[in-house]
Amino acid sequence: MGVDARVGHVGVTVVGIGADGWDGLGASARAAVSSAEVLLGSSRQLSLVPSSVTAARVAWPSPMMPAVPGLLATYAGRDVCVLASGDPMLYGIGSRISADVVIPYVSSVSLACARLGWAVEDVHVVRQIATLGAVVHPGRRLLVLSADGSSPAKVAAVLAARGYGASALTVLSQLGGPDESVVSGVDSPFDGLNVVAVECRGTALSPNVPGLPDEAYEHDGQLTKREVRAVTLSRLVPIPGQLLWDVGAGAGSIAIEWCRTHSSCRAYAVEQSQERADRISRNASELGVPAVSVVVGRAPDVLDLPAPDAVFVGGGVTVPGMVERCWRALRPGGRLVVNAVTVESEAVVARWHAELGGDLVRVAISRGSPVGGFTGWRPMMPVTTWAVTKVTKEEAE
């Protein structure tokens, strides 16, 4: 499960402010800013507050988030007002600190949808360009929250690489402010405060359900094949917000497709080969899932990682202590899935199945292949899958 990483103290108010600055704030927001002893915000946000406000102004350093706990501790006991862009609870600092009061402004997402005539509930919001590869589908509408003025061109490049170069792009800058602009295409220079609206146009299919084509991955043969991958992930049961260990990850396909099921899913891909680990990173980047973290080393020695909600052992189950370490690390309710393709690994699986229970399934796949002028079936190596759930204390009783 996710960890509440919020920090803060009594006396913190978070106020959302738009590109229209002070003029766009309501009475309660103005009162909160005016009564503060300390204002925290970006240099741009602080400049929007009139000089009549006498609070001490402290600009965020870069990087910002690591500095937040220390700054809040420095001003503990004083009336602190944190300025945030738009709605502080939409990918903003409001969800990262504990505040007494949050006063939101209209989010850039709502403003952009209003300008475009798009229903907010029908739009997928993309916070990081690195995740675009996981959400580009025919006909989908996206709003990409830009990092700076170079973001629109980067979005266009990703779309082109995914076969969606014909997508319609609109860049909306300084939304709600006097210098607001709405521009079709990405050829113009853009203000750093912008969002990119995308109407996806293309035919390439890269679904978020498990079972991507094997060709979607760069690999050296160490790849859980498409059909077996779909079965394996169905037993791992990807749940939003949960963490997977993919042990003996090979090309990283299990970890990658776990994370593609939902943007909040996370995974560690554990691989002892540096060459394969580098390949996993490239595959994860190409398929839009930066939430896959690659761990290089021999398992179970390197499994000193945050407790997982699910563990997949695709290689190394015969290594002494492997199953014990993975089972011990699992959270209550967690799932352990092991794939075995050799007699030796099947023997280990059979022994643990007898001790811990669970389900055993053998998957045998044959693919059509040319036989002279005809088509015959070419069998793949059968895979034995063992899946077991770690019951909670309540269930055990």
What would you say this structure looks like, in words?
The protein is α/β, with parallel strands linked by helices and 397 residues long. The protein folds into three domains: 7-105, Tetrapyrrole methylase, N-terminal domain (Cobalt-precorrin-4 Transmethylase, domain 1, 3-Layer(aba) Sandwich); 110-199, Tetrapyrrole methylase, C-terminal domain (Methyltransferase, Cobalt-precorrin-4 Transmethylase, Domain 2, 2-Layer Sandwich); 214-396, Rossmann fold (3-Layer(aba) Sandwich), CATH 3.40.50. It has eleven helices and 21 strands. It starts with 6 loop residues before the first strand and ends with a helix. Residues 1-9 have low confidence and may be disordered.
- How many H/I helical runs? 11
CATH homologous superfamily of the largest domain?
Answer: Vaccinia Virus protein VP39
C-alpha end-to-end distance = 23 Å
Radius of gyration: 25 Å
State the CATH class of the largest domain: Alpha Beta
Remind me, CATH topology of the largest domain? Rossmann fold
How many β-strand runs?
21
Binned, the helix content reads: 10-25%
Which strands sit side by side, in order, in the main sheet? 15-14-13-16-17-21-18
Structural class: alpha/beta
In short:
With 397 residues, the protein is α/β, with parallel strands linked by helices.
Secondary-structure map:
Layout: E1 7-8, E2 12-17, H1 27-35, E3 38-41, H2 43-47, E4 56-59, H3 68-74, E5 80-85, E6 97-98, E7 101-103, H4 108-116, E8 124-126, E9 141-145, H5 151-161, E10 168-173, E11 181-184, E12 194-199, H6 226-236, E13 243-247, H7 253-260, E14 266-271, H8 274-286, E15 292-296, E16 310-313, H9 322-329, E17 335-340, H10 343-356, E18 359-363, E19 366-371, E20 374-379, E21 383-389, H11 393-396
Parallel strand pairs: 1-6, 2-5, 2-7, 3-4, 3-5, 8-9, 13-14, 13-16, 14-15, 16-17
Antiparallel strand pairs: 9-12, 10-11, 10-12, 17-21, 18-21, 19-20
